[in-house]
């Protein structure tokens, strides 16, 4: 049975594809690779396309005849959504509306949707139950809430059943270390803390005067493999005729930023420098989710909730990723552009050699640094 996975080249989507394959289903990834990685698509075909491209999407649906859709594709950075809300309304709302319109016009197959705890805003109580009022405080959370409403209306009008999964903070990597998190730029706390341990740089803590046990923000970290498992369960629930619903994916337990840093120091065996910065607007003190509904309806019980397990899996992936110099799609395209426009002719040969191997790139201001197993080269004053 084929399942269409939008955003399946991304962090959580790729782990869900692995879980789908393990459950005997074939994931067909539909991704425009704007933020995902080609190398993360390993368990089925990759169809490059945008969720807003109805013609392309229709052709992919006709070709693969999926039994259901898991819809991960979105932009997912709160800060970016505040700085550039147009981007988020266009991609997350208009894109999802186009996707859901295409699906309902084709066949109203069930949809599992990646929603978020950001739809709740500042909670009145923790752990947050699903019937807590949804009052998002940033455009990102609002875009996800709009899609939850579109899905509810689509059920009413067209009989399209769905499960909206409201994740808390995704963390960790594949326990078998085949895939993991690779964002560029990275904004999530855990990879930033691990990179600080690896590179000896400082990690910034935004606010240490919150009303929490140690003054830093508390978050409910949920292992990406547990998230992946919940998607397979939600899919089976819908394929068995389950009704439209929404549920939290959380551990019902929070860890503070300080606890994350201290645990990372133990896992990585290295001290981590900390820089205290002022609070960021819109960061609630504590976000912890109740996972009762997912347990009751899906029989879902997270297996990798302990922070040291999540950090160990993420650390193993980071070490492998650094060693193998995996390149992100953005880096790959950047290098191809550099070569196509013929910039730095003297460097072109070595750059091409680098591209042929797997590269790691790091744009530093206007400098582009490339590292491969063959060595390192830096292009100065790059303009792109
Ligand atoms: N990471 C978290 O902690 C978290 C928490 C709550 C909810 N979510 C949601 O889970 C989903 C996946 O998150 P992630 O962390 O894996 O993000 P990600 O950026 O790693 O993956 C998103 C994928 O969607 C693709 N994509 C984006 N816009 C697209 C479009 N218009 N057409 C086709 N493909 C497109 C990207 O290329 C990328 O591969 C998102 O919807 C996000 O909002 C994530």
Mean pLDDT: 88
Into how many domains do the coordinates divide? 2
Which consecutive residue ranges, at least 5 long each, have pLDDT under 50? 323-327, 343-367, 370-384
Percent strand equals 15-25%
Spell the H/E element sequence.
EHEEHEHHEHEEHEEEHEEHEEHHHHEEE
Q: Give the CATH H-level superfamily of the largest domain.
A: NAD(P)-binding Rossmann-like Domain
Shape category: globular
Fraction of residues in helices? 40-55%
CATH topology of the largest domain: Rossmann fold
In this structure, how is the largest beta sheet organized? Answer: 7 strands, parallel
Number of helices: 12
- Please state the CA-atom Rg, rounded to the nearest Å: 21 Å
In spatial order, strands of the major sheet run 3-2-1-4-5-6-11
Account of the protein in words:
The protein is α/β, with parallel strands linked by helices and 384 residues long. It has two domains: 2-170 and 221-251 and 287-303, 3-Layer(aba) Sandwich (Rossmann fold); 325-379, no CATH class. The protein is 41% helix and 19% strand. It has twelve helices and 17 strands. It has helices at 11-22, 54-64, 78-83, 85-106, 139-158, 189-199, 224-239, 257-268, 292-298, 307-324, 329-340, 345-356; strands at 2-6, 26-31, 46-48, 68-71, 111-116, 162-167, 169-171, 202-206, 218-219, 221-223, 245-249, 255-256, 273-277, 286-287, 360-364, 367-372, 375-379. Strands 3-2-1-4-5-6-11 form a seven-stranded parallel sheet, sandwiched between helices. A three-stranded mixed sheet has the order 12-9-14. It starts with a strand and ends in a 5-residue tail after the last strand. Residues 323-327, 343-367 and 370-384 have low confidence and may be disordered. Bound molecules: nicotinamide-adenine-dinucleotide. Nicotinamide-adenine-dinucleotide (NAD) binds at residues 6-7, 9-13, 31-36, 50-52, 72-74, 76, 91, 95, 114, 116, 167, 169-170, 183.
